Automatic annotation (TrEMBL):
PANTHER family: MFS DOMAIN-CONTAINING PROTEIN, PROTEIN CBG23364-RELATED. The chain crosses the membrane at residues 20-45, 163-184, 190-213, 225-247, 267-285, 323-348, 368-387, 399-421, 427-447, 459-485, 497-516. This is MFS domain-containing protein. The lineage of its organism: Eukaryota, Metazoa, Ecdysozoa, Nematoda, Chromadorea. Keywords: Membrane, Transmembrane, Transmembrane helix.
Length: 559
């Protein structure tokens, strides 16, 4: 009889190594997600970075030292009264504009369209232009007739650049969705996910450097695309880990987000933390619990109970696309997931800037205010057991449809309320409360569409969750594109259209899931898992047998 292998593990994880794996998955997913959304906060603190949608020199409009320094210096030096101060300011402006008339039209409360009409000059001061904007191409304007056309061309070029910067993560998620699925099957989750985190760490670290060098904006687009591409590995790995490591009662999604308010060190800190988490993942994770040296037979019994590892699963699992794409309940899950992440992407990308530019919170307070809704969202997500208990009060289909439909409808109504009553006056401090309510109520939908994925797909739920990554990319790309093109002057009236658009898409998602959503397994998934087999194993038939499986060795010793 072989000797049992000595297990070195913390006492709190004895017979519970699966929880350690799931916690590690939370950490890895959170850091990849934080790397993507970090840029949305960092742009408000980088005074030299012009790659963001709202250029920094004009972001100081609400607390600008540049606008207050001139009158303060004048009064301090000359002790002028109000009338003399006005005349002196006019003289200074006339001296600055002796040979040019400058018009600034605000596009995004700081994203300015700089159109210059020249008089009696034939060339442009390149040094002065470079100091004004690192992103200008130092275009030469020969006369006043060409200035308007050149200004329109520059405006279109700038908006295109801003579009690329903000939509790059979503584009990376879209492009990485299907390759991530193939890489996962070819190389396994252990190596593939570790490489994805290293890739994200490299791109995040470079974001602290590339915006300030030549062609920095284009390099910023590339780095954010790489972040999105690396992020595309999250949901395929979540599907794999929950299928192999979670019990039938532990299939639920995990999300976390973090904000910071420094502009350069967070990129480096996130990169370092991502590398550290990547190393821990590579050392601890194994594809299947049977191959993990710390998993004993008792825990393996809990994990595989109800999971039939038959030839049917392997044959169908080799080519699941046709079955998934022809299933209406699966499409209902994907569309509901897209609606869910439309709200998430809007909040994580633009809520800090919305608090700063629309609600007029202080720059230091905006990230903190924007993070409060996610803190409460995390608390509501942790209360999984309570919502699961409430779901047992009715049958599974009614529970799934009720959670998802109620969540989406209430969230859409709050968005409509925000569109009708924009922030200001009595609602000045209520915008955080509104978004907190939206994100907290949105967590109920997890027990709708995501639980439906497990009930419909059973063993194949991992593939349903994996391909959901594509629709997450659609959500991130769509919200960024909508904000860039519809919000031009960054006022409350323009944001009404965004809120109404999100509300309409949420209602459509709720309707689609309400019609096609299901809690019954599809024909091709009925025999993949047996939820009734929750009793301890009598035989080893439910285990994918291997001579080196620690669980089998431990079970032999116990018997």
């Amino acid at each position: 009889m072989p000797k049992p292998r000595r297990q070195y593990t913390c006492c709190c994880f004895v017979n519970n190594i699966r929880y350690l794996i799931l916690l590690l998955l939370i950490a890895c997913s959170s850091i990849l997600f934080a790397n993507v959304v970090l840029y949305s906060v960092a742009v408000m603190y980088d005074d030299l970075q012009h790659s963001q949608l709202w250029q920094q020199p004009q972001l100081s409009e609400f607390a600008s030292t540049k606008k207050t320094r001139i009158p303060r210096d004048i009064v301090g030096d000359d002790d002028l009264d109000g009338l003399e101060l006005s005349n002196h300011l006019m003289e200074m402006l006339n001296e600055d504009n002796f040979n040019e008339n400058t018009t600034l039209s605000t596009m995004f409360a700081g994203h300015s369209n700089h159109t210059t009409t020249y008089k009696n000059v034939s060339h442009f001061d390149r040094d002065e232009a470079a100091n004004f904007s690192n992103w200008d191409d130092n275009a030469k304007i020969s006369n006043g007739e060409k200035s308007e056309e050149e200004g329109m061309r520059q405006t279109l070029k700038q908006r295109t650049k801003h579009f690329l910067v903000w939509t790059a993560p979503g584009a990376g998620m879209l492009c990485g969705s299907f390759p991530a699925f193939w890489f996962l099957r070819s190389f396994g989750g252990r190596r593939f996910f570790a490489i994805s985190m290293i890739l994200s760490a490299t791109a995040t670290a470079l974001l602290a450097i590339v915006p300030h060098i030549k062609y920095g904006q284009y390099l910023t687009v590339c780095m954010r695309f790489v972040q999105g591409f690396a992020f595309a590995s999250i949901f395929p790995v979540i599907g794999l880990v929950t299928a192999n490591w979670g019990t039938l009662k532990q299939h639920w999604p995990l999300s976390a987000v973090m904000f910071t308010h420094d502009y350069r060190s967070p990129f480096l800190a996130h990169a370092l933390l991502t590398c550290l988490v990547s190393l821990i993942w590579f050392l601890i994770f194994r594809e299947k619990p049977q191959y993990h040296s710390l998993v004993n037979g008792l825990e393996l019994n809990k994990i595989v109970a109800g999971k039939i590892k038959g030839r049917h699963n392997r044959v169908v699992g080799d080519n699941p696309l046709r079955l998934l794409f022809t299933s209406f309940p699966v499409w209902a899950v994907w569309i509901a997931g897209c609606g869910y992440f439309l709200v998430i992407s809007l909040a994580v990308q633009f809520l800090p800037l919305y608090c700063f530019l629309i609600v007029h919170e202080a720059r230091e307070d905006s990230p903190v205010m924007a993070s409060i809704p996610f803190l409460f969202m995390l608390i509501f997500t942790v209360l999984y057991g309570l919502w699961r208990y409430l779901g047992k009060l009715c049958n599974q289909r009614t529970s799934v449809l009720a959670f998802n439909t109620t969540s989406f409808i209430i969230c859409s109504l709050i968005f409509i309320f925000l569109a009708i009553f924009p922030p200001g006056g009595t609602l000045h401090c209520g915008i955080v409360t509104a978004f907190t309510s939206i994100l907290c109520i949105l967590t109920f939908s997890i027990h709708g569409f995501f639980q439906s994925a497990t009930l419909v797909g059973r063993f194949f739920a991992q593939f349903i969750v994996s391909f959901m990554q594509f629709f997450i990319g659609v959500a991130f790309f769509f919200t960024a594109a909508a904000v860039v093109f519809f919000v031009e002057e960054n006022n409350a009236d323009e944001w009404r259209l965004i809120f109404l658009l999100i509300a309409a898409l949420l209602l459509i998602s709720a309707a689609v899931f309400g019609i096609f959503g299901s809690a019954a397994p599809e024909d091709w998934s009925k025999d993949s898992w047996d939820p009734s087999a929750a009793r301890p194993m009598i035989t080893f038939d439910q285990i994918d047998y291997h001579m080196e499986e620690c669980g089998v060795l431990e079970m032999k010793i116990l018997t």
